[in-house]
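Q: What structure does this chain adopt?
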Amino acid sequence: MFELLGIAPQALFGQLLLGLINGSFYAMLSLGLAVIFGLLNIINFAHGAQYMAGAFVAWMLLTYLGIPYWGALVLSPLLVGAAGIVIERLMIARLYHLDHLYGLLLTFGLALIIQGLFRNSYGISGLPYTIPTEFQGGQNLGFMFLPNYRAWVVVASVIVCFGTWFMIEKTRLGAYLRAATENPTMVGAFGINVPRLITLTYGFGVALAAFAGVLAAPIYSVNPNMGADLIIVVFAVVVIGGMGSILGAILTGFGLGLIEGLTKVFYPEGSAVVIFVIMAIVLMVKPAGLFGRTA
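A:
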């Protein structure tokens, strides 16, 4: 069938794999955005810079302290998430009762500052991060070659994404988080520290971005622009899935990654804009997004 279409199976499955990998990053980053917006009502434009910071922290841990990949996969999200907590307490917490535009402008400014700091310190040429020894090489599936590390990225993103969805939607902690955003006074009456809960939620969303950055470091070069190149696409993914929808962000992220990969096979010229075309169509048909709820 592929021969009739003039497409080599290796090219098709290779692009589908590439789309699935891109979709893994779309899903993790849009998940972090959805968590922050859905529970805090803040449009976190600094998310791409925090993703980039996660990759840079992993590189610095390896270069300066000799801490390998597995240590960085734990430490980098914790460190970047802790920095996010400081930002939330000092700046973002002052904006919760204001229009969304103020949060967008603040986080956009923070993104420019973070990118500028790393650009001035390390330049823009990109820094290599070695693939862990355990994941070097790949598997010959007959119709394509599957690199071990890329398979790990997909598995890790699926576990993190659906684990986060389960925690927020199916556990008592998630119920507290959702209730705190809708009626903080009532939740506080039960002895729950609502401001601390909100702060930890923002830190967790930032840590998700940093985790994705560590996963991306061995695939892409670590450079200050890696988040800026991705964040616009991720915002489109969040809009298509439905602003604040956790499950929508996950499913839409993976799905659009695959659609983008297929587009590169059948119509390469349209691969850079296919997600935005889909966003325009979805907004015309369902303005709240595929999984969003109308007000």
